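WARN no homologs supplied; continuing
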Amino acid sequence: MIACGAWVVAAIVAVVVYQAGWRANYDLATQGRIVVGVVTSTTPSDHLFCTYRYMADGRWYENGSDGCPEGVRIGSPIRVQYLPRDPQVDAVGTFIGDREPQVAGTVLVGVICTLLAVVVGRLAYWGSQRKGRPKWEQIS
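OK structure emitted
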């Protein structure tokens, strides 16, 4: 049973690491506003990374993303989606409008990891039963 518990904890950690920002992604999909920003720099070694500026509620914000559209150049317009309650939370490029499927992906990964933990725990338990070890040895 301890092995099963360790797998459940590992599954929970995997889900948290996999989509640490799922709530922000969901909020962007459901409450985000779209504005046109300007690309301020690109990284030639990583063709999808760029930094950009955008205006929200009369203030300028700057951020970077590895989800910038293909072939973007300095000075190019870029669509930015941000949260009105926290304009520093944003997304650009192909991620705009694509946030809800990420929430579904998070749930799917959680379910798969949990099922895997249960199956591995059960197999470990059944394997110890078949070896004929006393009950007290199976717990550790």
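Residues 2-100 form a domain with the OB fold (Dihydrolipoamide Acetyltransferase, E2P) fold (CATH 2.40.50).
OK
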